[in-house]
Amino acid sequence: xxxxxxxxxxxxxxxxxxxxxxxxxxxxxxxxxxxxxxxxxxxxxxxxxxxxxxxxxxxxxxxxxxxxxxxxxxxxxxxxxxxxxxxxxxxxxxxxxxxxxxxxxxxxxxxxxxxxxxxxxxxxxxxxxxxxxxxxxxxxxxxxxxxxx
Length: 149
What we know:
Elements: H1 7-31, E1 41-43, H2 45-57, H3 63-67, E2 98-100, H4 114-145
Helix pairs in contact: 1-2, 1-4
């Protein structure tokens, strides 16, 4: 890894890739809203990102950094099978997992729900904007350190 790009920037970059994949899948779902028998898909990049962070935390010297913070020992209660797990497991580093969403089926067999997809699209755009701002801030700090104004 380059000396100018730290692990945080790398993870934020992977998050942007995952959010881009998620937005592409949501757009595909919306484009097929009137296709009979279409089953919407979803990208679970949050789990993949947690796997990346967990894999990084197992590297020598990184364990203390990964477990630090106020939420390190807090377990998230899940009351529905669609909730995200609070723990990540080390994986192969893939950026996103695509799966079919099992939702209610309309009479034509299509399971795309406009409100669900638009909500997911809005959330994805907000997350993308936040990650992009974090990366811009990291590079602004680097620019300041290097003497830029």
